[in-house]
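Ticket #4471: structure export looks truncated?
Reporter: QA, pipeline team
Priority: medium

Steps to reproduce: submit the single chain below to the structure queue and open the exported record.
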Amino acid sequence: MPPARKKPKTPAPPRPQILQVTITEAMAGQRVDKALTLLLEEQIPALSRVRLQSLVAQGEVSLNGKPVKDASHKAKLGDSYTVTIPPATAAEPEAQDIDLNIVFEDKDLLVINKPAGMVVHPAPGNRDQTLVNALLAHCGKSLSGIGGVARPGIVHRLDKDTSGLMVVAKNDLAHQALTAQFADRSLSRTYQTIVWGEPVPLVGSIEGTIGRHPRDRVKMAVTGKGKPALTHYKVLESFNGLTSLVECKLSTGRTHQIRVHLSYIKHPVVGDAVYGGGRNRPGEDAKKIQKFPRQALHAMQLQFIHPRSEKVMQFNAPLPRDMADLLRSLRRLKAK
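Actual output as written to the record:
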């Protein structure tokens, strides 16, 4: 008789990481969350202060066997703390093998060139085939857990039909640092777009608070009840006043900001049916341009400070084929 096959062993569940930390003279008098984060920096460089605070709230930090209840409590010299870091739980979205255009990747983050048509987050109507589904499959075990969950840290978003560069964090260290740069505006994003008409002046800024449209809650609008928003623009090329190639730089990051601001000054993005890019315009040339199937908006440059090396990182992505083809058609029309 052939030997009985051995049943494959069930892999052991991941174990929590248990660390002992003693307060040094340099850390005495500091808040517990700050002291422990700094003392654990060499062992767990991706552990952020915010994550440490959540561990305190979950009862995973103890002093002399008793859970610490206040992360702001002052640490005393010689006190010995036990910090338990549970294994990262699995993210709810399903990991899916989807091709990604990865421009850069290391152990902390990756930069991707998102195609038009890809949704960033799973949501009703788009439960799968999203960027998050793709990142979960691509990154796998390299996701160390953001807020205790093995998920990619989406620092900023691009609309479904906007193409271009995005930076994504793999761990708490990168997520907190990049989020801070986004908040203090040191993370720089530059877009190129094709708009109707020719903005005047050719170089300028659009400032106007953005919030939910008062009548259409799906849309955003410049409204007195919104959040401050500032967009800088420069006309790069004009096509007989019919359309223009425009560069936009964001000083804030509001939902649909560029699309809303350009529509507000009466120069909506070509192909943007939501904010006016799909309206009827007279002339045969305009009818050809109106066939462009999405908003002609591309995130072409991204710059930030690497959270670990502190080096300035800059990435560029050329216009995707559909926008490049549209530009060639506009130049031919201009030359007629």
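Status: closed, not a bug. The export was complete when the record was re-opened. Leaving a note from the reviewer for reference: The chain has a mean pLDDT of 86.
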